[in-house]
């Protein structure tokens, strides 16, 4: 887990709760530990420890909580943690791959007090998306996005960009419009963990990056999403590393 703050605040405002490293997908840019045989990475905090952590975070001034992983929907106590966050008036986001987000589970989380759901999609096309994810998952992700909209929750779609999908960026943005996403994250791969191991195959060219920047700028002008588009480029093309991955 990590707590983030800004230069203008003297208190942290966001807690990213990495509930588990377990995940049904096998993305080659994942920040999950590479040495999965290490027993430390298979250990998870108890429900009681997470509830205490959530309460302590709120007392520090945190007002936003992101449930992440791995895949947080693999945690059977997720609804309990959402309720604990709602009890102390934290704004909560579920950061999920979407493949396990059924209408029943989403409804339970909504009733528990969840405020927002972010779903990751690996590409604009089923074949390419499933290839990167390592399992058939594209259609499940689209179904999950529709469930979020049907429940009236804000929907963020996240696309991790790299050499093999960046040329379909316009298609990704068209998909966001079709799914009526409220917010979009276009986050280039950051090279830690598995991404660093696979950097030679994933890092886009400068030409690809320049073209993508133009596409994003045009989409922002068109205001295709009510809450906007967040665009993050790789550290390798920045002057300085980002303060948080």
Structural features:
alpha/beta; globular; 245 residues
Account of the 3D structure:
The protein has 245 residues and is an alpha/beta fold. It is built from 9 helices and 8 strands. 37% of the residues lie in helices and 17% in strands. The protein has an 8-stranded mixed sheet.
Quick summary of this structure?
With 245 residues, this protein is an alpha/beta fold. It has nine helices and eight strands. It has an eight-stranded mixed beta sheet.
SSE class? alpha/beta
Query: Looking at the structure, what is the overall shape?
Result: globular
Provide the low-confidence segments as ranges. none
Outline the biggest β-sheet.
8 strands, mixed
Share of helical residues: 25-40%
Helix/strand order, N-terminal first? EEHEHEHEHHEHEHHHE
Number of strands: 8
Beta-strand proportion: 15-25%
Strands of the widest sheet, in order across it, are 1-2-3-4-5-6-7-8
Mean pLDDT: 92
End-to-end separation in angstroms reads 12 Å
How large is the count of helical segments? 9
- Radius of gyration, in angstroms, nearest whole number: 18 Å
């Amino acid at each position: 887990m990590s707590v983030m703050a800004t230069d203008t605040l003297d208190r942290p405002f966001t807690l990213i709760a990495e509930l588990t490293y377990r995940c049904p997908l096998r993305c080659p840019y994942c920040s999950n530990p590479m040495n999965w045989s290490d027993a430390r990475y298979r250990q998870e905090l108890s429900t009681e420890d997470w509830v205490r952590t959530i309460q302590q975070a709120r007392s520090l001034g945190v007002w936003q909580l992101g449930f992440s992983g791995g895949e947080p929907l693999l945690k059977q106590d997720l609804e309990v943690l959402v309720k604990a966050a709602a009890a102390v008036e934290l704004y909560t986001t579920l950061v999920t791959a979407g493949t396990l987000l059924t209408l029943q589970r989403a409804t339970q989380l909504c009733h528990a007090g969840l405020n927002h759901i972010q779903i990751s999609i690996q590409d604009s096309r089923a074949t390419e998306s499933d290839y990167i994810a390592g399992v058939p998952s594209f259609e499940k992700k689209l179904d999950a996005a529709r469930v979020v909209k049907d429940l009236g929750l804000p929907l963020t779609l996240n696309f991790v960009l790299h050499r093999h999908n960046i040329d379909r960026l316009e298609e990704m943005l068209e998909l966001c419009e079709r799914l009526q996403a409220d917010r979009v994250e276009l986050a280039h791969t950051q090279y830690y963990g598995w991404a660093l191991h696979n950097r030679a195959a994933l890092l886009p060219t400068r030409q690809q990056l320049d073209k993508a920047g133009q596409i994003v700028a045009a989409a922002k002008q068109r205001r295709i999403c009510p809450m906007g588009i967040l665009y993050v480029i790789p550290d390798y093309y920045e002057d300085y590393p980002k303060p948080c991955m």
